[in-house]
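call fold(seq) -> tokens
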Amino acid sequence: MTTNKKTNLSAALHEASGKKPIPTLVTNDIPATPQQSELPPSRQGKKIISGYFDPAVARQLKQLALDNDATVQSLLTEALNDLFVKHNKKPFA
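ret:
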């Protein structure tokens, strides 16, 4: 069979439900990443920065945001700018 497992499972579940078969659409022009225009204006031209931390770090950061009526984004911006200043770099985060 030439279809992938997800399509097979989807088709099998649909068939088992007794509904009419869904026509399959095959396309090769699906973009791998979202286009700039699909992003909200606040994210256009921006890059994501992430890391893996202990769950306690995430909880503490969220709690700090709540305690200060702030967002995690704003706290991370503050932290990055403090880091840049510490290393004699321009704070523009």
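DSSP finds three helices and no strands in the chain.
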